Amino acid sequence: MDLVNFKFKKNYGQNFLREQSIVQKIVDNADISDNSLVIEIGPGSGMLTKALVKKAKNVICYEIDKTLKVILDEELKNFDNVTVIYDDFLNRNVADDITEYDYDKIYVVSNLPYYITTPIINKIINEKIDVYKIVVMVQKEVGDRFAAKVGSKEYNSLTVFLNYYFDIRKLFIVSKNCFIPKPNVDSIVVSLTKKTTLLNVDDLDLFFKLVRDSFKFKRKTLRNNLKDYDLSKVEKVLEKYDLDLNVRAENLDIKIFVDISNIL
Ligand code: SAM
After folding, report:
1. Where are the alpha helices (DSSP H) in the chain?
2. What would the pLDDT profile of 89-109 be if each residue is shown by its tens digit?
3. What pTM does this model have?
4. I need a labelling partner for 203 at 20 to 30 A (CA). Which of 17, 29, 34, 90 fits?
5. Mutate to test the pocket of ligand 1, among 23, 39, 63 (most ligand atoms within 8 A of CB)
6. Hey, what domains does the chain have and what are their CATH numbers?
7. Which residues line ligand 1 (CB under 6 A)?
């Protein structure tokens, strides 16, 4: 691939992988099944894409930077199972984009543009795209948050949301030196595999609102963060777990949030 004349755009989070061994490790960990549709956000110069098209039945990519088209056309010219949509992933109706495809499972495999990691993950969840597995490279600190344990300082509302839907694993750390241009932060590849059974939540919107409100002011207790809720009901659930309203959200397991939201 010829990137000599390519002008990397920092504002698009363009740090391209240049280590084939890392690409291979990502694809191996994704363990893509035959009859699959893979979604890649930001194919860049197509290094990961080329490995994905060999494994998946179909690959659909979203690339915001149209100047990459000449490079991607060349890199992918021998494959007829890949489509690149030159548009902002965040503005797409993904459900519409994938209706034409026939597949058993959907995978999202991507070296994400870090500046929009959370919006991308939120979009995948909110649009209720039935993703079987997500294998993505993210900034190391973000990966730590995804997989944070209860009681740790990284544990936040996103951790709870993600753990509601997925089993999350940190796979391996990737050095800054594996990218061109070299980023300022270390990276990590994480996998999120859809849970086979989800916890029983009566009202998902209420559950998500409760979790968000509980973490609103990180240093504050539930008594303070949940002022607008029926605190006697919240207290009743907490008592079951030998806790009281002075507890902070970071100390609550997902199961406790579910119990609280179901009683409200
Ligand atoms: N997959 C390539 C690789 O691993 O070498 C490139 C990864 S680079 C970290 C992120 C890619 O996402 C860039 O190609 C960038 O142009 C693209 N990108 C940034 N924002 C985007 C958006 N909103 N929608 C689609 N692609 C985007």
Report:
1. 20-30, 47-55, 69-75, 94-97, 117-126, 140-146, 157-165, 204-214, 222-225, 231-240, 254-263
2. 999 999 999 999 999 999 999
3. 0.94
4. 90
5. 63
6. 10-194 (3.40.50.150), 204-263 (1.10.8.100)
7. 12-17, 41-45, 47-48, 62-65, 88-90, 111, 113, 116
